[in-house]
Amino acid sequence: MSQTIAGRTLSRPDYEQAVATARAASTQYYGTGEAADAVADESAEVTVLDDATYDQLVRDIAVTEAEHPEWQVQASPTQVVGGDAGDVEHSAPMLSLDNVFSAAELADWHAGLSKRLGRGPRYVAEPKLDGLALAARYRQGALVQLITRGDGVHGEDVTFAAAAISGLPAQLSRPLTLEVRGEVMLTDEQFAAANELRLANADRPFVNPRNGVAGALRGSKDRTYVIPMTFFAYQVLALPETYPGERPDESLGYSAAIELLGELGVSTAATSPARIAVADTIEAVQEYIDELLARRADLGFGIDGAVVKADSPADRAQAGSSSRAPRWGIAFKFPADSRLTTLEEVIWQVGRTGVITPRARVKPVFVGGTTVTYATLHNPNDLARQGLMLGDTVMVLRAGEVIPRIEGAVVSARTGSETPIEAPEVCPNCGGEIDRSQERWRCRRGRTCALPQAVRYAVARDCWDIESVGEKLVRQLVDTGLVTDVADVFALTQEQLLELDRMGRTSAAKVLGEIEKAKSQPLARTLTALGVRGTGRSMSRRIARWFGSMDDIQAADAAALEEVDGIGPEKAPVIVEELIELAPVIEKLRRAGVSMAEPGVPGRVVAAERAAAAERAAERAAAAAAGDAEADADGAAATAVGAVDDEADATLAALLADQPLTAANGKPMSVVVTGKMTGPLAALSRNEMNELIERAGGKSSGSVSKTTSLLVAAEGGSSKYKKAQDLGITIETPEQFAERLKSLL
Ligand SMILES: NC(=O)c1ccc[n+]([C@@H]2O[C@H](COP(=O)([O-])OP(=O)(O)OC[C@H]3O[C@@H](n4cnc5c(N)ncnc54)[C@H](O)[C@@H]3O)[C@@H](O)[C@H]2O)c1
Ligand SMILES: [Zn+2]
């Protein structure tokens, strides 16, 4: 995960230009968030950079200054903190943070600090919140002033925004006098809501949450509507003597201060999904950082790294600070997850279910670890409202493994050559009418619009595996009306097939043979073949394994579906609705003799039994701990209950016997497969390997982490292999793994 941004040495004119560009970009960045509005003078050039580009520029400047200290100018971003000075003097300078970009750089930093202190400090590690720094002054428990960071010495008074910020109460739970510092930001939800509001009020939407928060904050003075924001605190400090009242204990460590903030009613990252870690070694810090990066996309708000700080005030005092940043803390920067690029084309796609979605083709840009060329857009109505244009400079977000998304456009960067995006008049797939009654447009023909694609998908190797039904045959089957939905495949007869072009007896027999075999495919594959909106292969497997039978799946309501790992309150009702729509197709499949059960899968019943067994085991352990005396008192009753339990446990054990990847505690083992398979597993696709793992009671995962139980790899050398070795995770060859699963092969 390391990202090296080595700086380059610039020529003197390039250096001066770089400093000027960085300053202009900063002004923009800390301005209103809607570039154009920040520039009163229309003729002024607007410099908008994404953070990755800005950071690269600053690195180049730093490397150049190291080589030519005499070139350094006062305005260099390496010398000064962020934005413009305001008129409120800070109680103590609001500093920036120095950065590291890799585990090795962090270890070096730790070595340096340990040397300075003469010992390895205890650390607190927390998210680097991607918002704006804010100082909040409380006098005797009442919020009296909010100040931006400004140039670090003087900030701007933004007290007027207080009511819009959650996490910063107007009144603390105790009447203390103190200053709280932290980050004000727009959560993902708040960003979406903010743009809805802005559009409804004929204001320009924000480009992304990070750029939006400056505008949200400043604009709250004159705006007629309120844009809610969120605050997370990361520091408590004393106020000057002019502020009367009881003060907090100044010898508090950082972790204790975070706790105090929580008690006072101020929110911190400790109670956010990001959490905070206290760690005695730099390795433990790194572990938190790795784990935080893995969870980055699921936090609900933007982070651009982690911050590592010495916990004790004594360590901090001894380490001290430079004019720009403290020496007792460091920011571990994550690779950029959003970059600016150009929107080149909008492609309208019709999905398997007939839903029409716009997809953006952008000028290729490296973001979130890969080069992105395509990104999802909002739904068509949003597109029209946002007024996005072809040729716009757009922000592409790719966090974690999720599909890249366009967050917004920098309207101020328009040159006049942009062109409007044309929405389709008719269905781009069949030329038929579009149903625009819902937010998501859909072809009026629904699933039948994309029927050939749906059938192709259903007969593919990962679903029913009817390989002899190729693309041309599917076309013919659909065109002749023999197939009107995916289930019709199972109703095909020899006579019907023989009437088709280029279909002889041998081919027809082959097709029918494969169709016959497909009838006994596991439920998970049939569920995948149905193309239920909101599910794919792995979700279908999870659903099939959880319920065990199609009857149980169809009987499930949204609440029951939500019990399946990965199905949330948004997805569950969609799946229910889809299954209702698909009921006639499912009924056809049932009548055609297609299997409606997941073989060898314990399903929900055993899942419930597992939970009960685990509970019983815990109770027994507790009883044992409570001492024999009490257990004796309940003697008779306990024996009777115990007998029933033992019987249930025996049933469970029998059921689990062919679940070699279920751990003793009933939890699935997490298995990662890498590289080419060999031996008995050589012919299996990755999807088939995943199926096998799940059938064996395990969980397949794409990346190695602390929680991985097993890595399957034919040879060493890959990064997953090395990571597993480092973490001491069991590694098996495909042959060894096949041996472990022999009861299932
Ligand atoms: N795109 C642009 O044009 C542009 C211009 C200027 C700055 N920037 C961005 O701003 C950043 C650089 O500016 P910077 O000086 O604020 O440095 P920084 O963001 O690298 O680090 C310091 C800041 O981190 C914040 N922070 C978040 N979580 C924190 C935590 N848990 N503990 C302590 N502080 C925390 C605070 O606001 C603090 O002031 C970079 O990310 C840069 O990309 C971008
Ligand atoms: Zn259509």
TrEMBL record:
NAD(+) binds at residues 51-55, 96-97, 126, 149, 183, 309, 333. Residues 669-745 form the BRCT domain. PROSITE patterns: BRCT, DNA_LIGASE_N1. It comes from the Bacteria. Zn(2+) binds at residues 427, 430, 449. Its EC number is 6.5.1.2. Keywords: DNA damage, DNA repair, DNA replication, Ligase, Magnesium, Manganese, Metal-binding, NAD, Zinc. Belongs to the NAD-dependent DNA ligase family. LigA subfamily. This is DNA ligase. It comes from Kineosporia succinea. The lineage of its organism: Bacteria, Bacillati, Actinomycetota, Actinomycetes, Kineosporiales.
